[in-house]
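Quick start: read one record
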Amino acid sequence: QVQLVESGGGLVQAGGSLRLSCAASGRTNSWYTMGWFRQAPGKEREFIAAITWSGGTTYYADSVKGRFTISRDNAKNTIDLQMNSLKLEDTAVYYCATNPYGLGYSTPNRYDYWGQGTQVTVSS
C-alpha cells in the first residue's frame, strides 16, 4: 500500500501562484513515475504533468506547459507542482498519483494509487 497526501491548495487570484506538494508513504518506490491530475466539477479527470523516477524526464499537458513545473525529491518521497500565471480555468481538485510502469503517463487508469486531492480555486 502507498499513501499519498496532497497539500498546498487554496484560493488565489488569477495571475498568481501556488505550490502543491504530494507526500508519499508506505511501500513507496522511487522508480515510480509520478503524476498530477485535476478534476473540475462536471468534467473528467485531466492529466496535468508527470515526472519519471529520476526526475530527468517531465511531461506536461498543453494547457499548463510553460506555467506549471513538476519536480520530485526521492530522498523525501515528495513531488511538487509549482503553478504560475494561474487562470480561472485552472480551478479544480488536484490529485497526485503513482504510475508503477511509467507507461501511458497521461492516462488515469495507468496510475494505481491516488491521493485524496487538494482544492485549487482561482478567482478573478
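The chain has a mean pLDDT of 93.
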